[in-house]
Amino acid sequence: MAQNPVRVLVTGAAGQIGYALVPMIARGVLLGPNQPVILHMLDIPPAAESLNGVKMELVDAAFPLLKGVVATTDVAEACTGVNIAIMVGGFPRKEGMERKDVMSKNVSIYKAQASALEKHAAANCKVLVVANPANTNALILKEFAPSIPEKNISCLTRLDHNRALGQISERLNVHVSEIKNVIIWGNHSSTQYPDVNHATVKLPSGEEKSVRELVADDAWLNGEFISTVQQRGAAIIKARKFSSALSAASAACDHIRDWVLGTPEGTWVSMGVYSDGSYNVPAGLIYSFPVTCQNGEWSIVQGLSLDEFSRKKLDLTAEELTEEKALAYSCLS
Ligand code: NAD
Ligand code: LMR
Asked: What is the ipTM of this complex?
């Protein structure tokens, strides 16, 4: 039986990530090969012509799953009836800037778009914020869209999660698909804590071994590995002169697909979600946790042990998010 199309909003669709993301969505990477989609693309008036060019290319690509395209600079029209909203619109970081530096430009956008989503999106719309500072933009969106359930608002740290998998894969010369259960804790920033203490690798024999045991180099795992993942966004900006785009788009698809379709048994992923105080992370922040997803709902993985080194790292990134929250409110006042 043919499925009803799902309406997917991409804001900032004329930008770099948007250009990589919309063909992935139209090809079924987001929701699977049998799920038709209608794309809603929003950008600002100076980008309208370019947005129309993206629409033309989507028509030219003749994607079988793509049942319609709305390309607009009107935020109400863009948000109307959407089931999934991927919020990429905003200003990216340039070389030499911290993600915090893009704060004042972006939080006011998220305050305004919160109201539009609240008024016009479908009930139970799932929201993923990609634009930086991603955790704090998501928090602002949540606070200014009080009727959207807090469980439906998330931010992207899956890119960091995938980066951690990539680093372990290169170090151990194993494929990323054999590695599971790394964790990104906290902020999508250089204070994030990429944690491998519970991560395992499936060996060709079928046996599972811990990443720590296989790497057998705690100095690397507690030092260079962490800083490489924390600084990877800056390294991409330095190399490309633009921030990451294809890997960010792919990670956004991974995030939504696992949220909607579920995580495999025994596997968790990292998502920035509203903290309920788990692991003594202050409640009321959007913080990246290990989560499993089932029936369209995420749950924070509970009961993982944290050593003193990890505890300090979790607290440090929470402190930064608390500061960002205060700064965001000061930008809005
Ligand atoms: P970009 O500048 O290429 O594209 C951004 C687009 O947003 C532009 O087309 C711009 O016109 C549009 N825009 C600006 N204000 C808007 C508004 N109010 N409404 C709708 N659209 C608006 O940037 P990019 O490289 O695509 O990056 C987008 C964002 O994603 C940046 O904030 C970047 O820092 C962030 N990012 C996050 C992650 C992550 O893992 N969370 C990864 C990569 C990039
Ligand atoms: C990334 O992690 O690549 C993005 O957040 C872009 C940036 O500013 O680092």
From this structure: 0.99
